[in-house]
Amino acid sequence: MLRIYVWLYVAFLYAPIAIITLFSFHSSPSLTFPFEGFSLRWYARIFTNTTFMDSLWNSILVATATAATTTVLGSLTALGLARLKGRVQTLFGLLSFGPVALPGLFLGIALVMLFSQIGLARSLFTVTIAHVLFTLPFFLEAVRSRIEYFDLSLEEAARDLGATPAQAFRLVTLPIIGPTIGGAAILSFALSFDEFIITVFVSGNNTTLPLTIWSMMRRAVSPDINAASVLSLSLSIGIILLGGLLVWYQRRSALNARAKDIQE
Q1: pLDDT at 70
Q2: Which of 99, 133, 177, 208 sees the fewest Cβ atoms within 10 Å?
Q3: CA distance 163 to 125
Q4: Over 70: is that where the pLDDT of 79 sits?
C-alpha cells in the first residue's frame, strides 16, 4: 500500500511537467488529446521570437549578477556569524533568516516604495537588488549549516604555522566550505532565474523570462508557452547538474590529492 502511495505521490508531482513537455512537441496547436504527432515548430517559433530571447538573456544576466553578489555577501556574513557566540549569534541568525518568512508581495511593495523614495528608476539593476535581498537568506542558511561544524582551530593552527589570514582562508577554510558555497550559489541562481512576484513590482521596461511567459499566457494559452516553459526548466536543470558535476570533480580531486600525499 505504501509503495502505491509513493508512486501516486511521484506521479502527482511530475505529471504536469510531463504533460507540458509532451505538448511542447505536439505538431498541432491543439492542447488536447489524442496526440497527433511530434514537431519542433514551437521551439523554432520561440527561438525566432526576439521578445522571448531578450527576456531570456535578461534573466540569465540578472541571475548571474545575483548569484555572484549573493555569494560574496553571504559568504562573508556566514563566516562572521560563525565567529559570534551565544545569544548574539542566535539573534543575528534569526534576523538574517527573517526575510524568508515575508511574503513576496510585501517585499515587492516595500522595494517599490524604497526605490521611489531614493529616486532609483526601475530597471534590471533594481531587479538584481531585489533578487539579492530575496536569495541572500537562503544562501546564508545553506552555508551556515556547513560552517557551524567547521573547526575554527584549523585556521588558528595555520596561523601558528606562519600563514597570513588570507593564506589561512585560501588554503584551509575555502577548500572545506567551497563545495557548500558553490551549491548555495547555484541555488541563488535558480531562485533568481524563476522569481516572479517580486520581479513584477521592481522591473522596468526590460522584463525577465517569467514575466514574458506570464504575458504570453494572458493573451492565449498557446503551444509556444509549453516550449518556453520547457526551455526554462531545461536551463535550470542544466545549471544544477553543472554545479553538481563541478562539486563532484572538486571533491574527487581533493580525495585523489589526499591519497597521493598519504602514499608519498
Answers
A1: 92
A2: 99
A3: 39
A4: yes
For the record, the C-alpha cell of 260 comes out as: 597521493
Q: Which of 96, 93, 170 is nearest to 133 (CA)?
A: 96
Alpha carbon distance 23, 208 (integer Å): 24
User: What does the pLDDT look like over 213-231, one tens digit per residue?
Assistant: 888 777 666 777 788 888 8
Burial grade of 139 (CB within 10 A; 0-12, 13-18, 19 or more)? buried
pTM above 0.70, yes or no: yes
CA angle 231, 235, 239 (to 5 degrees): 170
Q: Which amino acid is at 260?
A: K
Q: Dump the DSSP string for the chain.
A: -HHHHHHHHHHHHHHHHHHHHHHTTBSSS--SSSP--B--HHHHHHHT-HHHHHHHHHHHHHHHHHHHHHHHHHHHHHHHHHT--HHHHHHHHHHHHGGGGS-HHHHHHHHHHHHHHHT---SHHHHHHHHHHHHHHHHHHHHHHHHTT--THHHHHHHHTT--HHHHIIIIIHHHHHHHHHHHHHHHHHHHHH--HHHHHH--SS--HHHHHHHHHHH---HHHHHHHHHHHHHHHHHHHHHHHHHHHHHHHHHHHHHHHHH-
Cell of 239: 545549471
Number of H helices, E strands in the chain: 12, 0
Give the SS3 label for residue 34: coil
Say what the pLDDT of residue 66 is. Answer: 94
Q: What is the mean pLDDT of residues 123-150?
A: 84
